[in-house]
């Protein structure tokens, strides 16, 4: 039974967002999909996202927005690309053919075009189209969320913040999913270093819906970026019961929790959380966000001197199949961490060789365009570091360190590459690199005062370079 709270044809029409279908069931299933996407929580009573996507297309096979949301969510999950997956490529074509054959609204046509652009890797153009939708339809949840994710994948932090800021005045708390915008806006504020405002906004959202795992995640970011480890640990412990039910983001929140332990040097506690939550969830779900989180945690622990090779081997079982996807540079770098950590040279070479080929002829694909100047040097630096060639790792990363943002992800996620550069510079035999390491640590200490990790690294640098 579909809950009555989901919007039917008339409800969508009344809200100024008409859908080109006469099926009330299709409209309600479309709403159910949006709700799960915004809340990061599968509704198992409806069969989860996949069940609802099947149901919306069964209710009206010609409902264009049913195809937009189904195909769009598969693409935005970055687990499969039209380049390698003919079924997905066919779904994009079918969506476009349905749109061309019907009299649908201009807003729906923009959605179709945006998904087509995203599918071929033209992320900036896709985000421009979602932006165009929001200029006239600021309450279009699908455009808001897809834009937010697309900008996140490009590291467009200010745009990610501003896109939500400018639609918020058009919403009120009586509208479905209103509170979740606060968590999204909070995250944009975090990524633009407005930590006080970000915490306030996230907690406003949590006051309305304590189960908002994205808002909780934003608070976790605030504590991470301020190096407030004890506050962060207390927050995660006291709110765990609320956000752990959000299966699509719970693993990421446990990742944040583990980061606090690494920061404090409590490696066994971090490993325990990795084993009980992060590894279990990433291997179980196969979700890309879960997998990259697991790779990142192990890489950070390994740089801290913790032996994690066996865990990398386990993780390789779920990351290995994505070695040639090349959908996001951010993903590629994390999959490379897994193959290097597991000492699986064949997978490493396969990933790097296919990425080089795409970088030579990137076409319209934004991520492939990024590969030559930023992505490949970062990959090569990981490889050099793994081989003990620390000087080469520094020389590869130093010229592009202010471009790390372009690979997407959050400041907290990308910090693994800042740490990599620091470790490489400290371990290099080059005296200039060693001085550079001390400069990097001074910068880090200024940006995040009271960081225990920074203090440990400073002590290590001083001990190495007496």
From TrEMBL:
Signal sequence bounds: none
Membrane-traversing stretches: none
Record flagged with keyword Ion transport: no
Presence of the UniProt keyword Repeat in the record: yes
Keywords: Repeat, TPR repeat
Family listed: Belongs to the TTC38 family.
PANTHER family named among the record's database cross-references: TETRATRICOPEPTIDE REPEAT PROTEIN 38
Protein's recorded name: Tetratricopeptide repeat protein 38
């Amino acid at each position: 039974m579909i809950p009555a709270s989901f919007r039917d044809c008339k409800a969508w029409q009344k809200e100024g967002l008409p859908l080109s279908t006469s099926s009330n069931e299709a409209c309600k299933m479309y709403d159910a999909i949006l709700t799960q996407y915004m809340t990061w929580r599968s509704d198992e009573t409806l069969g989860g996202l996949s069940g609802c996507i099947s149901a919306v297309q069964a209710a009206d096979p010609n409902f264009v927005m049913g195809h937009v949301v189904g195909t769009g969510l598969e693409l935005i999950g970055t687990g499969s690309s039209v380049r390698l997956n003919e079924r997905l490529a066919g779904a994009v074509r079918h969506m476009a053919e349905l749109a061309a054959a019907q009299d649908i609204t201009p807003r729906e046509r923009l959605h179709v075009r945006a998904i087509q652009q995203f599918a071929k890797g033209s992320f900036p153009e896709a985000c421009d189209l979602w932006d165009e939708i929001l200029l006239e339809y600021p309450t279009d949840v699908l455009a808001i969320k897809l834009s937010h994710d697309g900008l996140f994948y490009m590291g467009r932090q200010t745009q990610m913040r501003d896109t939500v800021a400018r639609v918020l005045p058009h919403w009120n708390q009586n509208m479905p999913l209103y509170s979740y915008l606060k968590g999204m806006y909070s995250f944009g504020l975090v990524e633009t270093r407005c930590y006080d405002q970000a915490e306030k906004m996230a907690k406003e959202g949590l006051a309305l819906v304590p189960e908002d795992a994205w808002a909780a995640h934003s608070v976790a970011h605030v504590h991470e970026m301020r190096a407030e480890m004890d506050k962060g640990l207390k927050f995660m412990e006291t709110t765990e019961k609320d956000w752990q039910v959000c299966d699509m983001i719970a693993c990421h929140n446990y990742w944040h929790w583990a980061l606090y332990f690494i920061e404090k040097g409590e490696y066994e506690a971090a490993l325990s959380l990795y084993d009980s939550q992060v590894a279990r969830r990433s291997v179980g779900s196969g979700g890309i966000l879960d997998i990259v989180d697991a790779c990142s945690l192990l890489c950070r622990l390994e740089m801290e001197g913790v032996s994690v090779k066996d865990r990398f081997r386990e993780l390789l079982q779920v990351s290995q199949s994505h070695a040639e996807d090349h959908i996001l540079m951010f993903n590629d770098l994390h999959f490379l961490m897994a193959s290097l950590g597991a000492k699986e040279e064949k997978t490493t070479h396969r990933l790097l060789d296919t990425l080089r080929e795409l970088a030579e002829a990137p076409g319209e694909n934004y991520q492939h365009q990024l590969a030559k100047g930023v992505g490949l040097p970062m990959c090569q630096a990981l490889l050099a570091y793994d081989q003990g060639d620390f000087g080469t790792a520094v020389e590869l990363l130093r010229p592009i360190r202010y471009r790390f943002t372009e690979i997407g992800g959050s400041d907290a996620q990308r910090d693994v590459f800042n740490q990599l550069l620091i470790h490489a510079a400290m371990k290099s035999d080059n005296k200039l690199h060693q001085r550079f390491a001390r400069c990097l640590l001074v910068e880090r200490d200024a940006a995040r005062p009271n960081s225990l990790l920074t203090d440990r690294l400073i002590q290590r640098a001083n001990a190495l370079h007496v």
